[in-house]
């Protein structure tokens, strides 16, 4: 690990000021990606800005048809939240499927979404629910947020404050997990907004994406069998030691069918 200056600000203003002042400063949320990266000397920031004490970045609020989750809220808190379980049970389920207990008690929703890991779970829900990423500067719609592998619409120094999820009529999430890391080899989130269907996919491509062809087929008939009529294009899908691009395309189909079955209570 390379040397760096360590900071623990107590406000968004102080944190963003430190980020601007540092030559190559970086935010630290739960540290589930950053700490291993630093230990392996794959990054050498000038300053690490720990967000753990920043006021107003943690907590869950349900109001006006939306669930707002502070960026520093842990996966475990989302998974166990009675409010989330009532409003969007599939989101609580998704959070409970992330990693293991240790990861869920340290990792944060903001850190996960900011990192845009291609196999992370939350991005599927962000896309599938049409969430809004609230930063200290602006609001970013889900479709405009994920850009590519570990790349988002966040500008230099921009800090996520919260993520707001519209509450659907019903929703479901299914993933094929890596047996060691529990990352999603492929994960599919399906949401029904009174007949308007949204489908978010993670793990398959360089970043999470909206599966509009699946949405159209499910809008015509909300049934697992409707997925069979959709051709899954996999030209830009990931291909690695865990699964080929073609295999991931098949997993998208299988996980989508399972998610729809869950959504329908079958």
Word description of this protein:
The chain is α+β, with helices and mostly antiparallel strands and 266 residues long. It has two domains: 5-49, Uridine Diphospho-n-acetylenolpyruvylglucosamine Reductase, domain 2 (2-Layer Sandwich), CATH 3.30.43.10; 60-263, Uridine Diphospho-n-acetylenolpyruvylglucosamine Reductase, domain 3 (2-Layer Sandwich), CATH 3.30.465.10. Helices cover 32% and strands 25% of the residues. It is globular and about 55 Å long. The mean pLDDT is 96.
Q: What are the salient characteristics of this protein?
A:
single chain; 266 residues; alpha+beta; Uridine Diphospho-n-acetylenolpyruvylglucosamine Reductase, domain 2; Uridine Diphospho-n-acetylenolpyruvylglucosamine Reductase, domain 3; 2 domains; 5-stranded antiparallel β-sheet; 14 strands
């Amino acid at each position: 690990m390379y040397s760096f200056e360590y900071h623990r600000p107590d406000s968004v203003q102080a944190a963003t000021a430190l980020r601007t002042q540092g030559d190559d400063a970086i935010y630290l949320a739960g540290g589930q990606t950053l700490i291993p990266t630093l230990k392996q000397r794959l990054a050498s920031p000038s300053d690490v800005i720990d967000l753990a004490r920043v006021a107003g970045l943690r907590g869950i609020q349900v109001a006006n048809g939306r669930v707002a989750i502070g960026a520093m809220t842990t996966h475990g808190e989302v998974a166990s939240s009675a409010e989330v379980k009532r409003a969007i049970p599939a989101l609580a389920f998704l959070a409970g499927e992330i990693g293991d207990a240790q990861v869920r008690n340290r990792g944060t929703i903001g850190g996960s979404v900011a990192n845009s890991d291609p196999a992370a779970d939350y991005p599927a829900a962000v896309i599938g629910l049409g969430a809004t990423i609230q930063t200290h500067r602006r609001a970013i719609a889900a479709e405009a947020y994920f850009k590519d592998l570990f790349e988002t619409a966040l500008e230099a120094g921009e800090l996520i404050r919260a993520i707001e999820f519209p509450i659907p009529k019903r929703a479901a999430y299914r993933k094929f997990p890596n047996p060691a890391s529990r990352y999603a080899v492929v994960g599919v989130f399906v949401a029904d907004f009174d007949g308007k269907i949204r489908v978010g996919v993670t793990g398959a491509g360089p970043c999470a994406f909206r599966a509009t062809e699946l949405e159209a087929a499910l809008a015509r008939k909300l049934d697992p069998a409707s997925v069979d009529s959709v051709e899954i294009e996999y030209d830009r899908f990931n291909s690695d030691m865990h699964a080929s691009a073609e295999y991931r395309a098949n997993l998208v189909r299988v996980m989508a069918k399972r998610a729809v079955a869950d959504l329908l209570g079958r």
